[in-house]
């Protein structure tokens, strides 16, 4: 860490990595959702820049919460040819500003890592509140950095160690299997997504797919699916009919999911949900709004909200200041 | 400067100050406007956060230009009670990212200074292309940091040294007069805005006023007015009738000025301009689109566009790299 002037601190990715184990992350991300659904939040629409050749998308998110000391601006990008250059596809940084003066408090040069972490944590929050009591197998769709993150944080909310993983890319899958902790996880890979779907009752989808992967007829009663991959109007991972016919759809932000993600895709296919869509923050505050029994099919559609960025950035910065 | 990792450079405000004199700034800002009006630009709408108690507004702007090496994200805030705390009301920073990978290239911790500079330069560009040939007196409305910046860069485009300044705040005005270079400028202050308006043929308005200051009947033929203060839907400095009845209205961005600034205010008063509104970038490329003679009243409405941020941030960073 270097004090560049009296007011702005710059934290490197290494410093951020070393601070994270000292932070109780899951409650921070739960709070991010309850704060958001409390409406004490300013959370403007996501700003996007899109690139071709090489293809990439950049999302700029920001949020302020009444009476919080900082507001956050977060830039997160996905440049999907990066791995071929030996660079993570996710890049970006988080910024904290003083809510009373606008002064730059902290620059977290995380190179996209904190976005990956808070998205992984959001998956764990969904599993905690929406998965069936007895998770028999976790199905992970995709084998990128987010697939790793999901498993990392699912560890903290479920005892299930049985995992099936599917990915379109053989090399991606190999890398994932090379890096995963085989001592902890009882993991198998499959070429058959249907098989994964039929044998898992907690499924997490983590791909940037532009056509849907999971079909309605593959999903057995009692399954919970968290879809984290689709965060633009073009990406989709779930059969729109699956979303429409599930017993419960939970989203991070009803407003944001009107314009991106699985819920947007479902509406775009002229379908409507079986029951009123509920925000995750409301389920966290009142579990009775969540899963009713072990036969319901529940879906969580996460597009990522900036209060998650605010809470994790603030958590890192306050831990650094201690 | 500190190399925090292989890819991100962080420049402090002091370093930025020391680099600026080595940069040909005016052509950079001219290019910012011509690039923008060339439509090779992605420039999403401004994102805003608003704060009460203390009151402040935060603008997040971003831009990418085809085939440029970087894209920019800029956060600029105005917290109007800051000066009472000994802090500039303008705060913020600029970020450059690699257009091919999304990696963070540079963090310019300018605390809002580069935004002030590029806005000052935009005023000079407007004067260069739109002011009458013979400037007899410069009228400066407001006495904050932007009033100083406007004069600083007007020096580079006009030989006129006669200035009249008006400000609502006596203390602001005193501070401005204390800090201005009296050797260079023949400066007088006035309590009568009408007098300033009637005796100046280049007027620059730099306030965050929420009711208009300059009346139509005060402005004499041949005057050019650059309005830089209003950059939100609530701020206004010019009588909407003055905008509507002027011979030419030039804006930085037609799209953006539909939603903020003087042109927005004019439309909001159900008025229409005498002639088609022209973008500054088009006037720079084709002077015949600008002032026709020395009797026209011309107006430039600047709300600030992110290609200005891109060009100045890139100029600073590339000069640093040399």
Question: Can you lay out the helices and strands and say which pair or pack?
Answer:
Two copies of one chain form a homodimer.
Chain A: E1 2-3, E2 9-11, H1 13-19, H2 25-37, E3 41-42, E4 47-51, E5 56-65, E6 70-79, E7 90-98, E8 104-108, H3 113-130, E9 138-141, H4 145-154, E10 162-166, H5 170-179, E11 186-189, H6 193-199, E12 202-205, E13 224-227, H7 240-245, E14 248-251, H8 254-257, H9 261-268, E15 278-279, H10 280-285, E16 298-301, H11 306-321
Parallel strand pairs in A: 2-8, 9-10, 9-12, 10-11, 12-13, 13-16, 14-15, 14-16
Antiparallel strand pairs in A: 1-2, 3-5, 4-5, 5-6, 6-7, 7-8
Written description of the protein model:
In chain A, helix 2 (25-37) packs across helix 3. In chain A, strands 1, 2, 3, 4, 5, 6, 7 and 8 form an eight-stranded mixed β-sheet that branches. Residues 1-5 of chain A have low confidence and may be disordered. Helices cover 33% and strands 24% of the residues of chain A. The first copy, chain A, contains eleven helices and 16 strands. The two termini of chain A are 14 Å apart. Chain A has two domains: 2-114 and 307-321, ornithine cyclodeaminase, domain 1 (2-Layer Sandwich), CATH 3.30.1780; 131-304, Rossmann fold (3-Layer(aba) Sandwich), CATH 3.40.50. In chain A, a hairpin with a 4-residue loop joins strand 5 (56-65) and strand 6. Chain A has helices at residues 13-19, 25-37, 113-130, 145-154, 170-179, 193-199, 240-245, 254-257, 261-268, 280-285, 306-321, and strands spanning 2-3, 9-11, 41-42, 47-51, 56-65, 70-79, 90-98, 104-108, 138-141, 162-166, 186-189, 202-205, 224-227, 248-251, 278-279, 298-301. Chains A, B: It holds the Pfam family OCD_Mu_crystall.
